Amino acid sequence: MTIRDELDAISAGFGEAFATGDAERLAAFYADDARLLFNGQPVIRGRVAIDAALRDMVAGGPASLRFVTDEVIADGSLIVDVGRIISPAGQSKYVVVYQRQADGTLRIVVDAVSSDGPQPTPG
Fold this sequence. Notes:
By secondary structure, the protein is α+β, with helices and mostly antiparallel strands.
């Protein structure tokens, strides 16, 4: 299996977990010390905090999201996935850094999502 195949399988699983509102399955994609960076929000650190944030996200009901990898950068145990999230509400972009774990699986260590919408202006 190629790295791209692994990422495609992870993205499909992530999308399925969102579609079913399965926050526990979503959190399982993250490493224990992962960081989640959402546009306009403080950094969410650690799997426990990420799990709580994901539970809040899916509490509003299932979401139809499709993750599209545009570029893969791999160097040793780190893999960077640069892509787009497509939903009925529009499109946003992401950069996800995976790290190969001791058991051979890939886990997210940094997940950054932002939109192309207008940036807030200084107050």
